[in-house]
Every structure is written in structure tokens, then in C-alpha cells.
Amino acid sequence: MKISIITAVLNRHETIADAILSTQAQTWSDREHVIQDGGSTDGTLNILRSLADDHTCLRSESDKGIYDAINRGISRSSSDVVGLMHSDDVFAHNRVLEKVADAMSDPEIDGVYGDLEYVSASNPHQVIRYWKSGHYDQARLKYGWMPPHPTVYLRRSVFERWGLYDTRFRISADYDAMLRYLVQGGIKLAYIPEVLVKMRVGGESNRSLGRILLKSREDMIAIQRNSVGGVGTLLSKNFSKVEQLMHRRRTTFPLPHEEICA
């Protein structure tokens, strides 16, 4: 089973090497890493070129934002199973894609997801939030549930039938897309009950008060257009982050790129 990992990146020279090496450390060899660079000017492109291997498919061109870049990457990919690796993230260990492939070997399953750790930007071993997603039940959507987007892998047929990310959203296109796939598409998800990805804090959705408010407005649009609830759904979605902070835990395994360099 070939798996495509999509990375959209723009001016992330501080973290992009970690994301690349984390992907290259995966034991599942039947993969491609589709990197969509938005025209970086800070040295990111040089790093991408220097680290490219036989699994890398790199393109650098201007785009209309992160979701447009992700859509371009998905359109360029050639695998039946597609997931994301954001430029600030790393896999939790080097067998993540093995576990994804194993779960996706069931032809009745349309996608898989797992748990996510938010970690310190300066120390990826320091866990800030632990997002234990749990098993999917459509009734949970009205309480703001969604699978952690960086851990989600979907069959290409999901995108072909139900569309890519709506680029009219600046922050919440992932939430809107997952609701569309789950509610309109009725897709079947399998849960891998472990941390699959470590995500550095400080992403686009929480960099400022203005971004937080924009995300809330866009989340509300996604909730209403997919008919999963109302204001209560939005409030439940936001309050769930408090529980994630309370259930944070410290992991002990090294980062994949550290294993390579050891």
C-alpha cells in the first residue's frame, strides 16, 4: 500500500528539517513525500533540496494560502492513501505509517486517525496538551468532536467524491472538510489508540486574539453548513481543550530524527 504524505510549507527553516527527517525515518518504505513550497525566501527551499531523497516530490510555486497549497499537493500525489505532515510537526515514532497501512488494509475503512500531542516549540519532549481523541461516534459531532487533523489519513476516493479543502476558509477548512466527509459522506474511520504526531504549539489558529476569533467564526460556519449543531457545539469544542491540558503526559521515546543522528 503506497501512502502519500503532503507537506505545505512557507518560510519554516527552523522546523522543516525535523518534519522531513521524521518522514524519512518511517519504516514503511512504500511512500511518497509530496512537498508544496509556497516560494520560501528564508532558506527553507535550500533545506528541502538538500534533504530530498527518492521518495520526495518537491515543487515550489506561489499559492493562495495553506489550504490551496495542501490541495495542490493532494492533486499531485499518486497514492491511494493520503495524509499530512505539517512543517512544524513530527511523527511520534518511526512505525506510524506501518500502523496506518495495517488499519487501512481493511477495505471497509475509509480513513484512520490517532491521538496528538501538542509540544513546546523549543522542546518537543515537553507535552503541553494531550489530545486523546477516542473512538468515533457521529453523535459526538454535536459536542464539537473531530479527529486530530494531523493524524488523519484518508483514501483518495474520499477527496474525489467529497472534495478537497474549501479555500474560502483561512483557518478552519480542515474542520469543515472533516465534517463534510463524516456527515455528508458517512465515511468509516478506524481509530489507532496512541499518539501518532507531535505538533509544536504556536500554529496559525492561535497566534493572536484576532486569529482565535476568526477561527471561532469559521468553526461556526462549518458547524452550521454541515448541520451538526449550533453555539453549544462551538462552546463544547473549545472547552475540550481544557481537558486536553489536564490530561497531558510526558512521553519518553526520542524524536525520529534524533534516532537517525544517534
Describe this structure in a few short sentences:
The protein is an alpha/beta fold and 262 residues long. Helices cover 36% and strands 21% of the residues.
Q: Could you walk me through the main structural features you see in this protein, from its secondary elements to its overall organization?
A:
The protein is α/β, with parallel strands linked by helices and 262 residues long. It has a single domain (3-261), classed as Spore Coat Polysaccharide Biosynthesis Protein SpsA, Chain A, CATH 3.90.550.10. The protein is built from nine helices and nine strands. Strands 1, 2, 3, 4, 5, 6, 7, 8 and 9 form a nine-stranded mixed sheet that branches. A hairpin with a 7-residue loop joins strand 6 (111-119) and strand 7. Helix 1 (16-24) packs parallel to helix 2 (44-51) and helix 6 runs parallel beside helix 7 (209-225). It is globular and about 50 Å long. Residues 4-144 form the Glycosyltransferase 2-like domain. Pfam families: Glycos_transf_2. GO terms for molecular function: transferase activity. This is Glycosyltransferase. InterPro entries: Glyco_trans_2-like (IPR001173), Glycosyltransf_2 (IPR050834), Nucleotide-diphossugar_trans (IPR029044).
